[in-house]
Amino acid sequence: MKIKLKKVTKRYNTSAISDHIVLKDISFSIDDGDFVIILGESGCGKTTLLNLLAGLELPTSGKIHVDGHQIRGIHPSRSMLFQQPTLIPWLNVKENVAYGCKLRGDTKELDYRVNQFLELMGIAGFSDAVPNQLSLGMAQRACLARALVGHPEILLLDEPFASLDTFTQAHIQEELVNLWLSEQFTAVFVTHDIDEAIRLGNKIILLAGEPANIIDIFKINTAYPRDRNTSEFKRIRTKILERFKTSYIAKRSLL
């Protein structure tokens, strides 16, 4: 699905005197099947932008369209994975993965689909376990299975692996890329980790400033999997760091 943002601004009323503008005049497009990374420092508005794409919040001004239709709220074609696991504590893993589809009445071959994604995520052996019996990595795998079992056309991910150890993080990142390649959904992934951005995305959108706006967009055509020790990976990392540094210097000069 093609996503288009045009001059999107998000403002919060923080007091009777002034408003807090988080995002200002954000414009970009995402092609069907892209894996787009929203990259920026903590607190720059990345999660707010993702919430707007999910329909959890609405822009103060500007418009967001998906295949020509303006986003006015949540929709089953868009699924979201959050920073921390959001499993229902009294349901087992299999019931959690199936929960959203059952709620929508999407039950055709549901048991088969749930088992398929439990296998893909490597947690089929824990289908009867409840969330407090899972490690953080296993719980996030279950959340990813739940997000994908309904075959969403757009998957939104809000720094979902930030709390995981390095080894688990790398493994799930690889699983996510393989699922994206096989399922052919559009992905929008928020992170502050430059290496993670380069490892996953085919397009990286740099977000910076107060209020935040887009300072650059990088397209990456390197084949998967991507090794951080290659010269091409290092070249891209250096260019991104230089762009953020230039933006920071320009910001400081205005203070």
From TrEMBL:
Keywords: ATP-binding, Hydrolase, Nucleotide-binding, Transport. InterPro entries: AAA+_ATPase, ABC_transporter-like_ATP-bd, ABC_transporter-like_CS, ABC_transporter_ATP-bind, P-loop_NTPase. The keyword Signal does not apply. Its EC number is 3.6.3.-. The keyword tRNA processing does not apply. Residues 3-234 form the ABC transporter domain. SMART domains: AAA. GO terms for molecular function: ATP binding; ATP hydrolysis activity. This is SsuB: aliphatic sulfonates import system, ATP-binding protein. The gene is ssuB.
